[in-house]
Amino acid sequence: SLGDGANDVSMIQVADVGVGISGQEGMQAVMASDFAIPRFRHLEKLLLVHGHWCYSRLANMVLYFFYKNAMFVALLFWYQFYCGFSGSSMVDQWYLIFFNLLFSSLPQLITGVLDKDVPAEVLIAVPQLYKSGQ
């Protein structure tokens, strides 16, 4: 939802994504929103550029986590054949903690900072690219 005043606060709070525009009525909508923009003209860049990049990053994140967890379960599955289904632990708890910390946070942090599949100027010039992300 999109709002610019105090009368839009409840609408912004119940929406999945709320955008507040700092307007003449005050800053209530901005304080209640997920994203804040100073003028209505900045909405185009927020939706077309940052929205497309967000869709792209979320899709990559879902695929990455699926692959990471599938490989980890496959490793545990094959270990059971190796140890004869004895129930012994393959990895120490500290290794599990560092495995999830290393392979869950760092790649996504780097991807979130550096990954921009299409430059911002192209996304503004060709708005149809936003639809392909969905």
TrEMBL record:
Primary location class: membrane
Span of domain P-type ATPase C-terminal: 30-134
Cellular localisation: Membrane
GO BP: any one term: phospholipid translocation
Pfam families: PhoLip_ATPase_C (PF16212)
One example GO MF annotation: ATP hydrolysis activity
Membrane-spanning parts: 62-82, 94-114
One cellular component term from this protein's GO annotations in UniProt: plasma membrane
InterPro entries, per the entry: ATPase_P-typ_TM_dom_sf, HAD-like_sf, HAD_sf, P_typ_ATPase, P_typ_ATPase_c
Record keywords: Magnesium, Membrane, Metal-binding, Transmembrane, Transmembrane helix
Membrane topology annotation: Multi-pass membrane protein
Keyword Protein biosynthesis: no
Protein name as catalogued: AT10A ATPase
Gene source species: Thalassarche chlororhynchos
Encoding gene per record: Atp10a
